[in-house]
Amino acid sequence: MKSLIWLIALVFIVACTDKPKAAVQLDKKLQLPLKCLNLNTIDIDKAYKKRLESLYIFDKNCMFHLDVSYKKDIVCNSSYNSMAKSTGKFPKSFLKLEVRKGFDTKYSYYIDLLDNVQSDDVEVAFRRLKNDILSEQQ
Predict the structure, then answer these.
(1) What is the pTM (predicted TM-score) of this model?
(2) φ and ψ of 44, to 5 deg
(3) What does the angle CA 97 – CA 16 – CA 124 come to, to the nearest 5 degrees?
(4) Of 12, 28, 49, 65, whose CA is between 20 and 30 Å from 103?
């Protein structure tokens, strides 16, 4: 009986967590820290681009490219997600930052968000990326 109460309490605590967690992947062969990044500006919101450029000086000649992808106003009509939708914890958007060298992904940051992606979310993600793989020079 005690274990059942603890299990219910744990489920309640985990289900009520408001802060989404990011999934980060890093190529173990990547030599860190990186000295530069080139921002891929195709299909990026102007506000996000401006925020990123205020945080870092991107080098157009760098072989490591930062790709920013996101989707807003996600709607899913599948009945498999009925529990998540009914508790209000279904993601409304996602944000993904990928550092690539050619076609190879060297670093990836992905997060589901309960609200639409904002410039602040992009900044938080980039600060994490910067802390994880970039040199302190900038």
Answers:
(1) 0.78
(2) -115, 135
(3) 25
(4) 49
